[in-house]
């Protein structure tokens, strides 16, 4: 890819900061301007050398940037895009890192208006336990998948630029329509988070919750790890991707009902068949690694 | 505890082998006799020094043993106890390692008959990814919980002996009635396993399963790890603990329905409240360790 003169990173947390570090390490950009409504985070990003310059607003950061990367919580994207649009140069491209895409597209249409063709919705599938700019590392996206969901009206050269940037960061980029993205992630991400929250919530509501948790072991620990995630973020994701999440909840409830019926009827062969299919699929997906918890 | 002259370990897999190694390391036993219907596993156990002597049957192993530890799959416990009873000395104690307890008690009543007071049902909450005697290690039970479910008719000195052995292995021992054990583990172990199998089974059944799995990340990996467990074992556990598992499935389905309604109504505060309670409970349980997956 051509070396960019300047990029703006709005939201200098784990994702925004890691993108800045990865782009810099790849030699893909000369200058990085940051913006964040958390001014202390912004100062730390500058002090850590994650960004070169701290801007006072998204509009100021966007001004003069070849690419604007919006890495804020989904609920804040609208306001940020509104402000970004005010500073955006005529050839600049905008992308984001939101976990849901159809709602971001709807918001972007409203806020970016005639600049919508320069917006490439994106979702990097990456994270780590720590958050904040201090946790940012240039390797975060190495080997990670990034989904872009360009609209029919999106400029092909805008999509190409965003793809090239993510590839410079080491990511594997896939493009698909926003509704397809939201369906896939409702199934493999949003649903499991809701289910884990639901299980812990159910047990925590009991009078003997402490005793229950006291006997929980590794299997429970793995299954419920994602229930330690941010309630704000997953609330927003569930509501932003409501239709797909509801559809996945219903598919899942139907499958659980099948398992329930097999248990109730004492149908060992039926239960074993479904469990074996699941075990094989899980093992194939996890690269053949064995991973049991026979407790 | 007094040093035992001889123990019999029937089923020299991960659990039986680790118990033998731990007892030996603790200096709690002079001689360990093993039995296993898998004669190759039995030979390996002897070659590895996990057992001193290989017996030809559970009855032969039990003959002369102060303690008989039955560490075979739950579905095989009946036949093993039947045979153990034939060789059992008058002062010998028997215990097991099955994941469900009420059904083991029912089986033991049938098979041990007048020797039932010498049987102490047990469940060590331990495991690791590898299985088989080669994976056995003396530290497996260090800090692990062991639940004993003595019956009202169980000899107190039998329970005391089994407790002392587990404590010699480094375990933390709790006693409770078998039905209470089965309810607790239906909630914190059997249910999560069924739920994980159900999720993977549902996604694996789709035409686009490969694409779906292709976008799954760390949260999905954690949530579904237990779906890579043994289908035979978890089929048996679900059926052996059927009533409690069905009750837990229904409680869980009701809680998922609450989450579904909050999503459908777009009730952000309600969703956040339940998620926050779950997050806090999960974090408190996991010792305050943060563990997110904001992908």
How would you describe what is shown here?
The structure is a homodimer of 295-residue chains. Chain A has 295 residues and is α/β, with parallel strands linked by helices. Chain A folds into 2 domains: 4-175, Rossmann fold (3-Layer(aba) Sandwich); 180-285, 6-phosphogluconate dehydrogenase C-terminal fold, CATH 1.10.3660.10. Helix content of chain A is 52%, strand content 13%. Chain A has 12 helices and 9 strands. In chain A, strands 3-2-1-4-5-6 form a 6-stranded parallel sheet, with helices on both faces. Chain A has a 3-stranded mixed sheet with strand order 7-8-9, with helices on one face. In chain A, helix 4 (77-87) runs parallel beside helix 5 (102-112) and helix 7 (178-204) packs across helix 11. The termini of chain A are far apart. Mean pLDDT of chain A is 94; it is low at 288-295. The interface between A and B is large, with 94 and 94 residues.
């Amino acid at each position: 890819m051509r070396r960019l003169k300047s990029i703006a990173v709005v939201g200098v947390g784990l994702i925004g900061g890691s993108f800045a570090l990865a782009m810099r390490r790849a030699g893909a950009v000369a200058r990085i301007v940051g913006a964040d409504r958390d001014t202390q985070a912004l100062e730390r990003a500058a002090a850590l050398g994650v960004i070169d310059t701290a801007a006072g607003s998204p509009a100021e950061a966007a001004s003069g940037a070849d690419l604007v990367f919006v890495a804020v919580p989904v609920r804040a994207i609208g306001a940020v895009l509104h402000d970004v649009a005010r500073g955006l140069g005529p050839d600049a491209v905008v992308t984001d890192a939101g976990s849901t895409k159809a709602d971001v597209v709807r918001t972007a249409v409203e806020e970016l208006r005639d600049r919508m063709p320069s917006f490439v919705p994106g979702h990097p599938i990456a994270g780590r336990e720590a958050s904040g700019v201090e946790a940012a590392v240039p390797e975060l996206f190495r080997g990670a998948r990034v989904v872009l969901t360009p609209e029919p009206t999106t400029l092909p050269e805008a999509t190409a630029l965003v793809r090239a940037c993510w590839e410079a960061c080491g990511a594997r980029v896939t493009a698909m329509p926003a509704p397809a993205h939201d369906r896939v992630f409702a199934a493999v991400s949003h649903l499991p988070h809701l289910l884990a929250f639901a299980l812990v919530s159910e047990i925590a509501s009991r009078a003997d919750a402490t005793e229950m948790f006291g006997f929980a072991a590794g299997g429970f620990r793995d299954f419920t790890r994602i229930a330690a995630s941010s309630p704000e973020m997953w609330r927003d994701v569930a509501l932003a991707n409501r239709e797909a999440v509801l559809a996945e909840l219903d598919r899942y409830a139907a499958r659980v009902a099948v398992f329930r019926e097999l248990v109730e009827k004492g149908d060992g062969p039926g239960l074993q068949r479904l469990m074996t299919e699941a075990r094989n699929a899980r093992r194939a997906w996890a690269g053949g690694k064995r991973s049991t918890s026979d407790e």
